[in-house]
Amino acid sequence: MKYVSFLSDTGPGVGVVLGEHVFPVPHGYSVSADGAPLGLLELIQRGAPTSVPCATPPIALADVRLLAPIPRPARNVICVGQNYHQHSLEFDASGYNSTPSNGVPDRPVVFTKAPSSVIGPDDVIPLHDALTTELDYEAELGVIIGTGGRGIPAEEALSHVWGYTIINDVTARDVQRDHRQWFLGKSLDGSCPMGPFAVTADEVDLTDLLVETRVNGELRQSAKTGDLIFDVPTLIATISAGMTLQPGDVIATGTPAGVGIGFDPPRFLRAGDTVEVSITGLGTLTNTVGGPPGTDPGERA
Ligand code: MG
Prior knowledge:
This protein has two domains: about 1-65, no CATH class; about 75-290, Fumarylacetoacetate hydrolase, domain 2 (Alpha-Beta Complex), CATH 3.90.850. It is about 15% helix and about 30% strand. It is built from six helices and 20 strands. The strands form four sheets. Strands 1, 2, 3, 4, 5, 6, 7, 11, 12, 15 and 18 form an eleven-stranded mixed β-sheet that branches. It has a five-stranded mixed β-sheet with strand order 9-20-19-16-17, with no helix packed on it. Strands 8-14 form a two-stranded parallel ribbon. One of its GO terms (molecular function) is metal ion binding.
């Protein structure tokens, strides 16, 4: 099933997408006792429903504002660096990697993005031009954890996955390089576009997903998830070895070759650019890059 978190005329909600319509999940599923919307995270915590009652009339997709499937404040956004061979080579060669791996890492390179950096489809990616002149894009498959746990063996890992979404791991390259630790350059407000959908695991075949990025319509990244150096079960086993994964945690699995610093000269994002990240079966995550300094991360394109 394909879920969305959304805002409509009647407030926030969670729904199931069929065709061009959203079928809202009844409030008994999506609102806490005090009336606060809990959203998709609550559904994930309750388990992985294959069906939910949809008693209310559908809403046209065009009539809602889509939010990140797990909106801010999100759970952990755990990321993996240098997880496609060609990208690992381009990153080491770019001069922006303060901790080069000599080509291909022998263990997964794990870091995080601040959950406060999450924004939704069609939100504006702030340019932060007083801080960085080197904002870059990274298309990534996002794994949404369903059943949490610690010490999850690789052979059982996929049973802990609730579903999948798209992440754009927007990165300030100069900040990433100059501070020698990736967290800051990966966590600027608005640097984690997520969505548009959260698709349950039963509908996704991990072996052959096409991951693509277009900037202003020009194809920049294109690779299959079969090219991952460390596959999803290996990542879950590695991350959970000593750290309890929780329902709703998202693992961004790494980006393919073709990021801005992979070009000579580099091609960084500019005000007004449109970035589209597409993954087979997961839709297209579209965001524009903001113009004026101080652009609200929640501001619409
Ligand atoms: Mg990344």
